[in-house]
What we know:
Blueprint: H1 9-21, E1 32-36, E2 42-47, H2 78-85, E3 95-100, H3 104-112, E4 117-122, H4 129-141, E5 144-147
Parallel strand pairs: 3-4, 4-5
Antiparallel strand pairs: 1-2, 1-3
Helix pairs in contact: 3-4
Amino acid sequence: MKKSDYLTWDEYFMGIAILSSKRSKDPNTGVGACIVDKDNRILSLGYNGMPFGCSDDDYPWERDGEFLDTKYPYVCHAELNAILNYNGGSLKGARVYVTLFPCNECTKAIIQKGISEIIYLSDKYAGTDSTIASKRMLMSAGVRFRQYELSGKEIKVNI
């Protein structure tokens, strides 16, 4: 008899997005993303961090202050990193699992690449202009989005 408590696809891919977020050096908001195809194969992963060649020790991680003294002009978001990390063919019809609802800039990239669905864990910035713009564009472009429903399963990883 086969095991019955295995992970669903949503649990598996969101778990991988959560694990990817643990690579982020951001002291406030670590975000992870996992892009999968229609056959449930992982195509790419990403997390929020500085671009290649830009040391995360040399750039700020602050959220407040003068724009150039904050992380915002420098950090590459998890979704964009996952898209840029993909070296295969088209992402048309793919799904992205992400730990935080995409900002308007990442949403544009998601739409342009043909990703058809976003499954997100947190929508803590739902009331911001960026997220409102994201949802407006996603609805116009016909990209589905839904919040991941916590299953209550716990996965422990010892490293």
